[in-house]
Design brief:
binds magnesium ion, binds adenosine-5'-triphosphate, tRNA processing, Nucleotidyltransferase, domain 5, 41% helix, globular, TsaD, tRNA N6-adenosine threonylcarbamoyltransferase, 341 residues, alpha/beta, binds fe (iii) ion, transferase, iron, 10 strands, 5-stranded mixed sheet
Length: 341
């Protein structure tokens, strides 16, 4: 069975085609992403009107390129899926409407997929199954710890009380005068820095809950900046690598501490990492070491599937389809769609 999926929840337009049968690893036949990062960079963040306009410009050529990559015609697709939330309403509408139109004209089923379920399942695309595990989704808008019994069966263990991990990276990057998005830039600068140069707070480490908080850390970076350069609070050039490395380490320490504790309390032997922040190499290395020490298996998403893409939406759609699910063509998008009710 072959499924074509569209992702357009934010500033990436993406189309993917996946092929799969129950119990066997799925095969990705095509995965195209048109990133709008350059377009939004001059504004220092995503401009919703620009994003939706560009989704409508890029979508049709991307669908055609994906079909060409997969050597398939539209008639050979058995189902269509689209991200239906959470995300920007005007962006979600473009992809969801296109997928419904394709499903209607070909008389094939339509599947409305939660963007976060896409991230969550992305580490397992090339596996033959999804084992029970603890999942950490660290993206631009979310920091979510979940207990996963099986696909579709999720229990929320913890989430952020303020900023998401990726959002903290982006805001600190902005403070430090780095281009948008801050995450990859902070990682680059951190390579030359000392992670113990500044003693930044690890919020809620001793808290019994599995929730996170990153706004105190962000403020600590700001205070350090104004302290060291009272004139205008811009970082002294020599400070930049140390600030980035110390901030990054504080985020990593908290994420590892809570995720390992979640695995213990949920009695799971596998941890899966997904979302844009899981691209961070220091984070991957630190997680690999910590899980190894704890005798826990670590599964990460392929680097190409950490930030937004349609392959993860196609995979989530495939599993939902195999589960006999299908959505009516008048089903709506939901910009605040929860993963766990
Ligand atoms: P959500 O999925 O919550 O709606 P999103 O789709 O914007 O948010 P992703 O595309 O998964 O999020 O990830 C983007 C985020 O990942 C940005 O905040 C970006 O800064 C961060 N990021 C990307 N690469 C890195 C990196 N190497 N280190 C740290 N953060 C990174
Ligand atoms: Mg993005
Ligand atoms: Fe995302």
């Amino acid at each position: 069975m072959r499924l074509l999926a569209i992702e357009s929840s934010c500033d990436e337009t993406a189309v993917a085609i996946i092929e799969g049968a129950p119990g066997a690893p799925a095969t990705l036949l095509a995965s195209k992403v048109a990133s709008q990062i350059e377009l939004h960079r001059v504004y220092g963040g995503v401009v919703p009107e620009l994003a939706s306009r560009n989704h409508s410009l890029h979508l049709r050529p991307l669908v055609e390129q994906a079909l060409a990559d997969a050597h398939l015609s539209l008639r050979e697709i058995d189902a269509f899926a689209a991200t239906s939330g959470p995300g920007l309403a005007s962006s979600l509408l473009i992809g969801a409407t296109a997928a419904k139109a394709l499903a209607a004209t070909t008389r094939k089923p339509f599947l409305a997929i939660n963007h976060l379920e896409g991230h969550l399942l992305s580490p397992f695309i090339d596996r033959s199954g999804v084992p029970p595990h603890v999942a950490l989704i660290v993206s631009g808008g979310h920091t979510l710890l979940l207990d996963v019994e099986k696909p579709g069966s999720y229990r929320k263990l913890g989430t952020t009380r303020d900023d998401a991990a990726g959002e903290a990276f982006d805001k600190v990057g902005k403070m430090l005068g780095l281009p948008y998005p801050g995450g990859p830039e902070v990682e680059k600068a951190a390579v030359q820095g000392r992670p113990d140069a500044f003693d930044f707070p690890r919020s809620m480490m001793k808290d019994r809950s599995l929730d996170f908080s990153f706004s105190g850390l962000k403020t600590a970076v700001l205070y350090t900046l104004t302290d060291r350069n009272p004139v205008d609070g811009t970082p002294k050039e020599d400070d930049l690598p140390d600030l980035c490395a110390s901030f990054q380490q504080a985020v990593i320490d908290v994420l590892i501490h809570k995720t390992l504790r979640a695995a213990t309390t949920s009695n799971r032997r596998t941890i899966a990492l997904s979302g844009g922040v899981s691209l961070n190499r220091s984070l991957r290395t630190a997680f690999a070491r910590a899980t190894d020490d704890a005798g826990i298996e670590l599964t990460t998403a392929d680097p190409a599937l950490c930030t937004d893409n349609a392959a993860m939406i196609a995979f989530a759609g495939l599993l939902r389809h195999q589960n006999g699910e299908c959505w009516p063509l008048d089903s709506d998008i939901d910009p605040a769609m929860p993963l766990v009710p």
